[in-house]
């Protein structure tokens, strides 16, 4: 049985002896295998944004005092919404130099009330 085919790796024409042959040579077959394995490894790694989210959530979970950015990520709100809540008195915040910090118990009070 002789079937004319096109190599999936290099694109050249060749004569296949079976119906399932995809590559013209052992060299092309090995190249395609290495590409598949490399792609599997890359796909297994979480994206950079997923890594950052996982890192910030674990860092924020361990702290007693949170910054504005960490509080926004924890609550899923914007900075302006958080500042409005601080200004209205729903959340107590303290200034340390130029930083604004919020105690974790203040955030927990929001959900118990």
Can you describe this structure?
The protein is an alpha+beta fold. It has 5 helices and 5 strands. It has helices spanning 26-44, 48-62, 68-75, 79-88, 104-112; strands at 3-6, 13-16, 65-67, 93-96, 99-103. The strands form 2 sheets. The protein has a 3-stranded antiparallel sheet with strand order 3-5-4. The N and C termini lie far apart (78 Å). The mean pLDDT is 88.
Short key terms for the protein model shown above:
3-stranded antiparallel beta sheet, alpha+beta, 5 strands, 113 residues, single chain, two-stranded antiparallel ribbon
Which helices and strands, and how do they pair?
Blueprint: E1 3-6, E2 13-16, H1 26-44, H2 48-62, E3 65-67, H3 68-75, H4 79-88, E4 93-96, E5 99-103, H5 104-112
Antiparallel strand pairs: 1-2, 3-5, 4-5
Brief account:
With 113 residues, the chain is an alpha+beta fold. Helix content is 54%, strand content 18%. A three-stranded antiparallel sheet has the order 3-5-4. Strands 1-2 form a two-stranded antiparallel ribbon.
The largest sheet has its strands arranged as 3-5-4
How many strands, which pairing sense, and closed or not: the largest β-sheet? 3 strands, antiparallel
Apparent shape: rod-shaped
| Continuous helix count | 5
Ends: how far apart? 78 Å
Query: Helical proportion?
Result: 40-55%
Q: What is the beta-strand fraction?
A: 15-25%
Radius of gyration based on Cα positions: 28 Å
Number of strands: 5
Element order: H for helix, E for strand: EEHHEHHEEH
Q: Which structural class best describes the helix and strand composition?
A: alpha+beta
Quaternary structure: single chain
Average pLDDT taken over every residue: 88
Low-confidence stretches: none
